[in-house]
Queue: 2 jobs
Job 1
Amino acid sequence: MTTNDFIAIASRNDVKSGKTTWQTPSNIALVKYWGKRDPQLPENPSISFTLNNCHTNTSLSFVKKEEQDDAFCFKIIFEGEEKPSFQPKIQKFFERIVSYVPFIKDYNFVISSENSFPHSSGIASSASGMSAISMCLMQLEKQLNPTISEEYFYKKASFLARLGSGSACRSVKGELVVWGEHSEIEGSSDLFGVPFSSTVAPIFKNYQDTVLLVDKGEKQVSSTVGHDLMHGHPFAKNRFAQAYDNISKMKTILEKGAISEFVALVESEALTLHAMMMTSQPYFILMKPKTLEIIQEIWNYREENNSNICFTLDAGANVHVLYPISEKETVQEFIANELAGFCQNGHYIHDEVGFGAKEL
Ligand code: DP6
């Protein structure tokens, strides 16, 4: 599919008003996206587990304008309060997507959102937030053109979400999603995420992810700035090639149930992501001392208990602890007894692999 396939054709103009509500989850990358080019295209393919409990619920209310104009008219309510500070982000998103959903100029919108996780938890809300708005817009597009197929509906939702935030395109479907063209991943594209279609070994089903909230503050360097620093980065070319290669490796690992290789690859990806940050110009570090202490604790625990626990990191200080469901009880005990002590206010969130967007 090409970008032109995503230009909406409205066949009806009698949709005066309505409301649609969607829930979409966050996701955690196993092979990371870090580096992009215009318009929001990844420099390398990535793969993520879709999460379940960390999600955003978004309602989109729409009323057709009395008189046509070219402005985007919307109001944002976040967790019950009007948020003019979110306005520029959505304005920019609408500017990026308007050629694919021109009908957004025809309506007055109220976008009302809430997250299942605390706002200032350091958990990226852009993936779940942008994918939720995209699902709502697709629901409106479907009303304007009821002939669109289900496949198109989800692909375009992912396509739109990508234009809001790259990783958001992996939050529309579950359980594993690949974004970025790769010769071994059928149907893969730089334009949208596709569900990983190979058979996944049972050990990777219902995989568990506990998010340890190490630092709930605002990050010093945003992902967008971090991506930008990959332009001219001395290791960028090798990194993109390595990630491409790691997708091939991850595919085999997931198919074969090769858990030790999984652990090694996931941790290496997390540390490589942060190594890219540390070797950017200007350089920066998003991990905190407690992030490193947790990593050490996880390694000790794995060694002593013959466990398959491992960690991964986003662009922040929080640690995602990944483990198979067979270890749920023991690992969660270890988290409560040992790792919680490293978290801000002892705060962590148990999550697991989920299935993507749901209409509410
Ligand atoms: C480290 O998707 O947040 O989480 O496209 O600029 O919105 P933008 O960036 P974003 O980057 C996420 C990067 C990452 C790795 C990943 O999720 O693959």
Job 2
Amino acid sequence: MLGSMGRVQRGPATDVVASLREALDAASSIAALTGAGVSAESGIPTFRGADGLWRQYSAEKLATPEAFERDPQLVWEWYDWRRTLIRKAQPNPGHVALAELEERKTSQGGAFTLVTQNVDSLHDRAGSRKIVKLHGDIWLVRCVTCGRVERNDQVPLASLPPHCRCGALQRPEVVWFGEALPSLAWERAMEASCRAQVFLVIGTSARVYPAAGLAQVARQAGARVAVVNPEPTELEGLADWALRGPSGEILPRLL
Ligand code: BV8
Ligand code: ZN
């Protein structure tokens, strides 16, 4: 049923899902922005949900260069804890559905770009190919001195904090608050958002910028926007479809 504005359609009712599925089938270019909520059903706590705190610290307190400068050990204990959770986690049906959507769209000669804020690599493990990682990758580390980037899969970390072969400290290769996003990733995210006819916003509180601004970019370039989230978000006002519920249940219904 259409809302009063005739635009926003509530809840994952079958007609809403069917209408979005039709738009996805017809679209030649689709972009999706995901956040921590898409990994919630894989057992990974979100940043701002009830289970989002670690030793009572919020992400804003730990995911900063200042926190790392002040106490690299503490910041690495947080990442080691998250890496341990992520290693045990499996991609859920929401991750898998996004990989299938990409496969289907590209096999029809269309485009599907998955832009993620997540650093947990569950989209890679679910089979997504065209992934733009806006905030980095928890399995990569970077030397604070010589800049060398390498993969570190140790769970738990053998030594906390890890050190580079040059002897200097290594940090997680992720984007902290106050740090610029990788320019190539940002360019690819902007390009995909401007080209999309349908822009999916999945499992994000849409509070962190510039990532959260991509929905507006897509809309201004003519896309229709679908939001998949059990809760209302800051993007409610610009959603053409608001599918209220967990992505692990809703996304497979879009196939
Ligand atoms: C930058 C990576 C400048 C590391 C992260 C004031 C106004 C506007 C902006 C700012 C401001 N003050 C400061 C800023 C800038 C700041 C910002 O936006 N702050 C916010 C807090 C206001 N942004 C930055 O600093 C960015 N950099 O601006 O640089 C610059 C430019 C040039 C040169 C130099 C500097 C960098 C931001 C990146 C920070 N890094 N993480 C790591 O992961 O450890 S942020 C972290 O939180 C995540 O990466 C993610 O991006 C972000 C948001 O989290 P979400 O993914 O949305 O998760 P959240 O818990 O919030 O929400 C989960 C959602 O899932 C909920 O809605 C929930 O309902 C839903 N959900 C739950 N279960 C399910 C579900 N959905 C579906 N299914 C379910 N089952
Ligand atoms: Zn080094």
